[in-house]
Amino acid sequence: MEKNDAESQAAKGASPVFLAVCAIVLLFAVGIRIKTALELRTPLVAEATVRGRAFTIEVADTVAKREKGLGDRDSLPRDHGMYFPFEVEQRWVFWMKGMRFPIDIIWIRDGRVVDVHHDAQPPTVFPLETFSPAEPADAVLEVNAGIAREMGLEAGDEVIIRVP
């Protein structure tokens, strides 16, 4: 008895349509990984001015950049930082995953400081310590530990962000 066409095709191997779909899915998955890697390597650089002091900041403007933050770096130049803008105000929770140096965490709402956590230390134990503001915030600025105190930074201070 002779096999029908479908059985015959199955016996010969995968159809060209199936192989094409698999290739497209694979290329899409690889493309997403490459895009994420490029986003992490291509920082958006801006400037933050606080109490008359200018900082060169990297803007964490994607989920991948927000997750990575300043993790896996050995240091941060003195007048540099990282800025995390958010679409909504809330009591954002930060942790120090992958951090190797202490930072000051400055919570901001509507361009004004709402809270500061001084000298957040890299983790030494698990679970990781978390940090959140006393009030809702729509952005966070991270700078080297000690700078906020050195500047006398306090709630209500203006933070001006200039993105090119």
- Binned, the helix content reads 25-40%
Widest sheet: strand ordering: 6-5-8-3-2-1-9
**Element pattern in H and E:** HHEEHEEEEEEHE
Structural class: alpha+beta
Number of strands: 9
Number of helices: 4
Provide the low-confidence segments as ranges.
34-40
CATH topology of the largest domain: Jelly Rolls
The pLDDT mean sits at: 86
| Radius of gyration from CA coordinates | 24 Å
What's the level 1 CATH class of the largest domain? Mainly Beta
Q: For the report, how would you describe the main beta sheet?
A: 7 strands, mixed
The fraction of residues assigned to DSSP E strands is 25-35%
Q: What is the number of independent domains?
A: 2
Distance between the termini: 74 Å
Q: Using the alpha-carbon principal axes, give the shape.
A: elongated
Oligomeric state of the chains present here: single chain
Question: Could you state the CATH homologous superfamily of the largest domain?
Answer: Protein of unknown function DUF192
Instruction: Just name the CATH architecture of the largest domain.
Output: Sandwich
Task: Describe the fold and architecture.
The protein is of the alpha+beta class and 164 residues long. The chain folds into two domains: 5-41; 44-162, Jelly Rolls. Helix content is 27%, strand content 35%. The chain has four helices and nine strands; from the N terminus they run H-H-E-E-H-E-E-E-E-E-E-H-E. A seven-stranded mixed sheet has the order 6-5-8-3-2-1-9. The longest helix has 26 residues, at 16-41.
